Amino acid sequence: MSENSQEGSIANIPFFKGLSTPDLMAIMGIAITKTLEKDENIFSQDDPSDGLYVLLNGKLQIYIFSGFIGGASKILAELEPGQHVGEMGLIDGEPRSASVKALVHSEVLFIPAAGFSTVIETRPEVARQVINTLCDLINNQPKLIINSERAALIKDKKLAPTLPNMKALCSILRLHNNKTAISSR
Questions:
Q1: 32-36/60-65 β-pairing
Q2: Is the CB of residue 15 less than 8 Å from the CB of residue 88?
Q3: Rounded distance between C-alpha atoms, residue 104 and residue 113, angstroms
Q4: Domain residue spans of the chain
Q5: 46-76, pLDDT tens digit by residue?
Q6: Is 1's pLDDT higher than 60?
Q7: Closest residue by Cα to residue 134 from 118, 158, 110, 114
Q8: pTM (2 d.p.)
Q9: Residue 60 φ/ψ, nearest 5 degrees
Q10: Which region holds residue 99: left if phi is over 0, alpha if psi is between -120 and 50, else beta?
């Protein structure tokens, strides 16, 4: 796959949508292409987060393990080329909430968290796009109520585009997602 098509695949990720070609190229500058064999895990549930994975070709499965040893896994989703996994881990470094494996021989584009933090610090438009996307994600959660002085800043997308603010927004989203998952059981 050519670099232009890889750049096109990351341009569809909400965090990167609408970024200029130089900003996308800066992200591509830290990206690594990885090949996966059938049934190879990209990462496992509870692993430390290390970045974002974009499926270039093949098929991935996202699954979680049941709460007991030897229990069956539950399939959450299957990803097709162009889809991605690990966007929160790109920013906050929190442990993985699920496992991901290749269902067939696959190729992914890996954007490492360590390199991405440098891109955020040196490319203001990337940082602004990421913080705005996180604010949109929070604002679009119908049952999420934020009781803090930052609620208006999130609603109006006026938070400073810093890594600590991005991590705080990811924390709000993860907490909300966990509460939603528990209440829907």
A1: unpaired
A2: no
A3: 26
A4: 3-117, 122-183
A5: 999 999 999 999 999 999 876 666 667 888 8
A6: no
A7: 158
A8: 0.80
A9: -115, 155
A10: beta
Residue in 131, 136, 139 with CA at minimum distance from that of residue 168: 131
* Fold (topology level) of 3-117: Jelly Rolls (2.60.120)
User: Strand 99-102's sheet: what is its strand order?
Assistant: 41-43, 99-102, 60-65, 73-79
The secondary structure of residue 95, as a DSSP letter, is P
Distance CA 49, CA 63 (A): 16
CA distance 65 to 71: 7
- Encode 5-31 in three state secondary structure: HHHHHHHCCCCCCCCCHHHHHHHHCCC
What are the backbone dihedrals phi and psi of residue 36, each rounded to the nearest 5 degrees, phi first?
Answer: -120, 140
Mean pLDDT of 123-133: 94
User: In 3D, which of 55, 69, 176, 183 has the Cα closest to residue 108?
Assistant: 55
